[in-house]
Amino acid sequence: MQALVIAAHGSHLNPNASNPTYAHADAIRETGAFDVVRETFWKEEPHFREVVRTIDADEIFVVPLFISEGYFTEQVIPRELRLEGWDPDLWESDGIDASQATLEATDVDTTVHYCGPVGTHDAMTDVIVGRAERVTGDPSVGEGFGLAVVGHGTERNENSAKAVEYHTERICEMDRFDEVEALFMDEEPEVDDVTDYFDSEDVVVVPLFIADGFHTQEDIPEDMGLTDDYRTGWDVPGEVDGHRIWYTGAVGTEDLLADVVLERAADAGADIEQAIDHDRNETGPTNADVAGD
Questions:
Q1: Count of CB atoms within 10 A of residue 19's CB?
Q2: Which residues span the domain enclosing 236?
């Protein structure tokens, strides 16, 4: 038997923070890929510390629903799961390359495949583009448009910016959008000045966050000038300094993210190729599929 555990942050303050986790878990359950699919959280129940001990399976694939490698993926989750012999060096990553490490969980006779976060997987590039397609209603959106990929950014964790910059570079290489920029909340270049970085009249802004919350629904819209008060909402597209801003909300709410979770598990050895094909049929092909990559 093989099981999947999706590990997310959750929130005591925002009851909607866990919604994407449950939605993606439900989508994966429908594929029949795993005998067991469980959600687990740091700030909500069921907690990281108990989840592995409640699953009867030969192999458990743990996929962190986080954007970047860092404190939670390298320290908190492995510690709480009690993974014997864990060391971040097992990922052999420079901040965006984490794949998986196969370990044993203390006091249970179960093999745990601990995967890298969804946010650094190559398939996340397609999810970002998918958000642009969905918000504009145009499956071929690109020509005449700029695209801003927005991350939190922080001087405390350089990997926070690496994921944003990595996907921005990959989208640039597609040569699909007229302009593509990585912007941040707490680093330069800042999303507050989004219109300063684009000549394109139309700009799609995609926040590389897992869930919609304080940052994506309050800070960023107000910082960009889409609204003076987030409580009154904003137009999509909204007019800012002569540009039309197509703001999408958190990338983690995109249906295609379930496919990224499956890809992470498959990279770690899960026998789920048929399920991945099923999920792609449900959510539509990724840009990599279309390109034949």
A1: 14
A2: 124-252
Q: Is 0.70 surpassed by the pTM of this model?
A: yes
One domain for residues 114 and 41: yes
Per the structure, the count of domains in the chain is 2
- Ordered per-residue pLDDT tens for the chain, 293 residues: 999 999 999 988 888 899 999 999 999 999 999 999 999 999 999 999 999 999 999 999 999 999 999 899 999 999 999 999 999 999 999 999 999 999 999 888 899 999 999 999 999 999 999 999 999 999 999 999 999 999 987 666 677 789 999 999 999 999 999 999 999 998 899 999 999 999 999 999 999 999 998 899 999 999 999 999 999 999 999 999 999 999 998 999 999 999 999 999 999 999 987 665 655 566 555 444 433 33
C-alpha closest to that of 41 among 20, 70, 69, 68 = 20
* 91 and 47 share one domain: yes
Which CATH number belongs to the domain containing residue 247 in this structure? Answer: 3.40.50.1400
Q: Identify whether residues 129 and 240 lie together within a single domain.
A: yes
Same domain? For 87 and 144 the reply is: no
